[in-house]
Amino acid sequence: HQISGDAEGRFERGCRDVYYVLYWVVAFTLIRITVMNKVLEPLARWGGVSSSRKVTRFGEQGWLVVYYIISNTVGMYVMSTQPHWLNTRHFWIDYPEGHRQMSSLMKSYYLVQMGFWFQQIFVLLIEERRKDFVVMATHHIVTCNLLGWSLYMNYTRIGNAILCCMDFSDIFLSSTKCLRYLKLEKTSVVSFVVFIFTWVYTRHYLYIKIMYSIYSESLTYLPVDNWDPKNGSYYTRNVLFNFSILLGILQLLIIYWFALVLRIVYRIIFLSNLEDSRSDSESDGNDDENKRSLKEKKTE
How far is CA 284 from the centre of its chain? Predict the structure, then answer.
C-alpha cells in the first residue's frame, strides 16, 4: 500500500500484495499460452521445425527469452535509479529507512517477479516431467522463499541485484536452445559462448560478491542485532544465516548446472555436438511412430 503523506509517493509491503502476486500468476499463465500458441510455435514451424515436440520446446524457451529480456531490462533500470546501483554498501546503509519504502516501479517489479516464479512452479507441476524435475523444483521453491522473505524483511535491494544477476545469462541460455531448434548451428555456438561468459561473471563472481556483502560487509554498517519489526528492521545473525543457507543452496544448484555446461563444452570441442543435458531428450516427436511402423513392417 502507498505510504500516507510520503512526499515521493512511495509504497510499503502490505497484506494485499498477495492478491497482486496471485493476479500475475494467472496473468502469466494466460500470457505464456497466448504467446507460445499464437507467436512462437508458428515462428518455429515457419523456421522449419517439424517435430511437434520441438515446436513446443521452442515455444517454451522462446517465452523465457521474451520474459528474461523484459525482466532484466526493467530490473537494471530499477537498480540504476536506486542507491545500490553497482554499490553493495547501499544494501545496508541507513537500513531499514529508505529500504522499506519502495517506488511504485520497484514494488511492482518485485511482486511481478514473485508472480512469475510461483507460476513457474505451477508450470513445472502440470507439464511433462523431465529428468531435472527435482533440481528445478528446488530452485523455484528456494527462489520464491528468497523473494518472499526479502520483501517481508525489507531486503529488496539485494533481491533486485540477485534477480538481475540470474536473469541476464538465462537470456543467452534459452536463445541458444531456440537457435539450435532452428538448426542455426554456428549462431547457436556463438550464443552459447556468450552464455558461458555471462553465466560465470553474473552467477558466480557477482553472486558470490553479494553473498560476501550479506555475511561480512553488512557488519560494517549495522549493529549485530538490529531486530525491530515495528520499524521494519530484521537484521540479526540468525536472519543472515538463514538467507545465506538459501543463497548457498542456489549457488550449489548453479555449480551443478555449470558442471553440465562444461560437459556440453566438451561435446562441442571433441564431438561437435551441442546438446542440452539438463532435460529430457529432445528427439523428434515422431520417433515413437517411426518405431511402431518398423515393428509393423517386420511382422508383415
Answer: 28
**Rama region for 27: left / alpha / beta (φ>0; ψ in -120 to 50; rest):** alpha
Provide the angle, in degrees to the nearest 10, between the axes of the packed helices 17-35 and 52-80.
Answer: 140
| Closest to 49 in 3D by CA, of 163, 207, 180 | 180
Average pLDDT over residues 135-164: 97
223 DSSP 8-state letter = -
Looking at residue 275, its pLDDT comes to 61
Contact 156, 147 (CB under 8 A): no
Distance CA 97, CA 224 (A): 17
What is the overall mean pLDDT for the chain?
A: 90
pLDDT for position 5: 82
By the 10 Å C-beta count (0-12 exposed, 13-18 middle, 19+ buried), 160 is classed as buried
